[in-house]
Amino acid sequence: MGVVQYGDNPATQFNLKTHMNSQDVKAAIEKISQRGGLSNAGRAISFVTKNFFSKFNGNRGGAPNVAVVMVDGWPTDKVEEASRLARESGVNIFFITIEGASENEKQYMLEPNFANKAVCRTNGFYSLTVQNWFSLHKTVQPLVKRVCDTDRLACSKTCLNSADIGFVIDGSSSVGTSNFRTVLQFVANLSREFEISDTDTRIGAMQYTYEQRLEFGFDEYRTKSDVLNAIKRVGYWSGGTSTGAAIHYALEQLFKKSKPNKRKLMILITDGRSYDDIRIPAMLAHHKGVITYAIGVAWAAQDELDIVATHPARDHAFFVDEFDNLYKVVPKVIQNICTEFNSQPRN
After folding, report:
1. In this protein, which residues make up the domain named VWFA (predicted)?
2. How many helices (H) and strands (E) does the chain have?
3. Which of 246, 235, 228 is nearest to 185 (CA)?
4. pLDDT in tens, 96-150
5. Contact 243/308 with Cβ under 8 angstroms?
6. Counting Cβ atoms within 10 Å, is residue 64 exposed (0-12), middle (13-18) or buried (19+)?
7. CA–CA dist 137, 335 (Å, integer)
8. Is 161 left (phi over 0), alpha (psi -120 to 50) or beta?
């Protein structure tokens, strides 16, 4: 644990790796002197997200990030935008308001309802209000209980660390050996953006022609380097294009082994029209809650991409005219995956 004190500006009193036992932490807390100034909590939250919870300052990958923000009265700046970025970065904000604004003081507040705008979720679990400074000690036990309930720390999940992603790769004859390597590079570039481990995002892949084969399942590789090496080793198959059967196979062989607490993402890459029906398998995927991205290249049919893709198709279907342009789609796919994740309701 560490402490940040804020007034006009925030400053780290000590960071996550400064002290290794509670005795030293207590001694360090007693040495803190008051800075004075305003109550710029928004600025403090922004600082905590960008600086305090950095790897350099001792942040450990696997541990949930929790910020307990205390404010006297109300913040003197806005917290909404800084708090949104904190949530999207995986920081669970608990907000303690001490001696909050009385009815006639509310007119001075920059942001009414600031605590709800700051917290990880607006369900009451993350907010505590304290009538006066003398009763602050009473919040210690309830707060500790909540912070330790890691299963309920909803903001630990981000768009990059909480999915099972299944790549469905067209290996038909029209692709060719050289373009197939480009497709694998695209799969690797997308995978590289995620935090990969058995508790974070997991990656699986299958290849299809008329037939289908599982290249590797979600539980096979637990580190990013292992996943990237496995993608490199995928061999080109060559054959026809049965996209419908491939989607069906992905649901059975890949996504059946998906964890219930993970978002299921299917990323299908094809370069041509399917020889079989795609409508029913696509509907089945959507019905099973698999968010499907369809990436078409060269001779792929836009109408089919739109059917395969999750609604709205404009956010989930992409087309590039040649394989060498696949890399351009990577940032857009990542952006849309994250926008969709971050727009989930917060109650």
Report:
1. 1-147, 164-333
2. 12, 11
3. 228
4. 999 999 999 999 999 989 999 999 999 999 999 999 999 999 999 999 999 999 9
5. yes
6. middle
7. 43
8. alpha
Q: Which of 95, 157, 155 is nearest to 126 (CA)?
A: 95
Other beta carbons within 10 Å of 305: 22
What separation in angstroms does the CA of 58 have from each of 31, 108, 158, 225? 21, 38, 20, 23
List helix spans (H) across the chain: 22-30, 41-47, 80-88, 114-118, 140-148, 177-192, 224-232, 243-249, 279-287, 302-308, 313-316, 330-342
pLDDT tens, position by position, 28-41: 999 999 999 999 99
The token duo for 217 is 């399942």
The answer to whether 133 and 98 have CB atoms below 8 angstroms apart is: yes
Residues 6+ apart with CB under 8 A from 337: 159, 163, 265, 293
